[in-house]
Amino acid sequence: MDPLIVLFVGPMVLLLVLAIFAGLISPKRGRELVGELRPWKDHEAMSNVDAHDTDEMLDSINDHRRRRGGRDIGEELADEAMRGTWEEER
């Protein structure tokens, strides 16, 4: 047998055998990389949580602004919509 064939084809065959052997030993590994099927998310519950969290966040921001002596976010947005400009807070 020609030594060049052994030098070039031998390592490729060895890598192929190792890849096949690794696949047979750990068949779950492929599913971990691709991802298994997950149950559907409850989008209605997620939207309820998001709406509740957003309302709480806006209420706390408005409360902080009132304590500071500023106006609510809704008032500033309404003014901005009427004027078409936005004045930065100082």
Give a quick summary of the entry.
The chain is mostly helical and 90 residues long. Helix content is 74%, strand content 0%.
Task: Describe the sheet with the most strands.
Answer: none
Q: Indicate the structural class.
A: mainly alpha
Alpha plus pi helix count: 4
The first-to-last residue Cα distance is 85 Å
Walk me through the structure.
This protein is mainly α. Helix content is 74%, strand content 0%. The chain has 4 helices and no strands.
What's the topology here?
Elements: H1 3-25, H2 28-34, H3 43-68, H4 73-83
Note the main attributes of this structure.
single chain, mainly alpha, 4 helices
